Amino acid sequence: MPHELTPQDIEIMQKELDYRRIELMPELLEEVKRTRAFGDLSENYEYKAAKQAQNANRKRIRYLTRMIQNSTVLEDTSAADEVGLFDQVELYFEEDDEVQTVQVVSTVRCDPRQGRISRESPLGRVLLGRRVGDKVTVHVSETYSYEVEVRSITKTQDDGSAPVL
Q1: What does the alpha-carbon distance between residue 76 and residue 87 come to, in Å, rounded to a whole number?
Q2: How far apart are CA 86 and CA 158, in angstroms?
Q3: How far apart are CA 106 and CA 165, in angstroms?
Q4: pTM, whole model, 2 decimals?
């Protein structure tokens, strides 16, 4: 299944991929060579740590490469008065009598602790395309759901500040 990424997502991932391949990989390779010279590899913690860092870098490179290669470009086609990708949305949770602001983002940029929710999450799915005043029911599971009201929508663009996971 292809991943739906914004042009900004792909650009950020490509920059990280280039950095990891061009700059970080030679540094890690040099560190492995340097620590290998310390002697007995079975008791050489520095060598093991260098190899772990090198393997983690290779794993991230494979992940980024697959994500970029298997992606489709996701464009925001929402109207000016509808919730779209990267918009700030003020929500009223009637059950809790609480107001919260969230930003609907692509799956690789979500961070609920920072108020960035995935467009594929239960809340993100029901918010896209909604307008101010709409009340929607968010179905979390077969046994639990809650209602929210869209209080305001602030149209924003992806500024690239949200990191790619």
Answers
A1: 10
A2: 6
A3: 11
A4: 0.75
